[in-house]
Amino acid sequence: MSRPTTAPGPYGRRVGREAREARDRRSVDMPPFVPDGTERPIQRPQDPEEQEEYDRGKKKRHTRKNLLVINETCPIAFLSSTYEGRASDQSLAELAGYTWPPGSCLDQEKGFQGFFLPGITIFQPKKTPRGGELTPPEKATNRRISSIRIRIEHAIGGVKRYRIVKDTIRLLKDGIRDTVMETCCGLHNFRLQYRPWHYAL
Length: 201
Prior knowledge:
Elements: H1 16-25, E1 32-42, H2 48-54, E2 62-70, E3 76-79, E4 83-84, H3 89-96, E5 105-107, E6 121-123, H4 136-159, H5 163-166, H6 176-194
Parallel strand pairs: 1-5, 5-6
Antiparallel strand pairs: 1-2, 2-3, 2-4
């Protein structure tokens, strides 16, 4: 597994309606961080034990998995070590060992249920209760979280525009596949410095 890698990126600045909503949700003036896991397809390992570890199951392929974290302006702020494809997002977050400035916020999806960090405010969509429904305010909160979380999907797409990450990689030298992932994350951040993304408010 590669070492945890941090990719620097500016915190950015809130403007307009997003700023007001952020202040309503948070007692601190810190932009949210948004984590998510992403997988990279690999060739089927020859070792039967490795086949089981890296078998994604539902996607019927073998993968390696990383945890990415972005901030409001969508650069990759954190790239975790690489784990087998069966690893859950929550287990990756627990193993990553990342830390954020006190008072920071994490906007997490339901796959991180139960994960928390001391001194960090965590926002998560509320699950629909069995046999019940969410209230209108709860639905509105879930939509607001989703509108922020969609950015990490865009960031992952920005990294995977490089097909060496998206397609099955056939390089087998130790560490080369993780180096490729780190390089593509760096290229994504470099591109954003000169072509920043703008989201409708």
